[in-house]
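Suppose you are handed a protein chain with no further information: no name, no annotation, nothing but its sequence. What can you learn? This example shows the usual starting point.
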Amino acid sequence: MKRLGLSIMVCIFISAITYVLRGFEFTMKVNFGIGLVVLLLSMAMSGSLGSGDRQRANFYTTTEEDRETSGRWTIQLIVISIPFLSVAAILYYYGLKFVWI
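A reasonable first move is to predict its three-dimensional structure. Written in structure tokens, the prediction is:
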């Protein structure tokens, strides 16, 4: 829960700064970008981006402790990405056009 609270505070801080600098659309882009990068990092940590033979090789070469650690990091990164993606979705829902950077 500490990670979620910290990511919410960071999201509010970044959203406030980007809104003052460039407005709602830029705020949406920045939050979406940060959320997407963190979500991709969690996918990489979980090992879900590899093919079947790579996943099998990784499973047999890692220890149980390593798998538990990567699982904890994966969950923490997903929790961290939630506020950023939520803010981007809310801003998009309220009528802002999404324009790719």
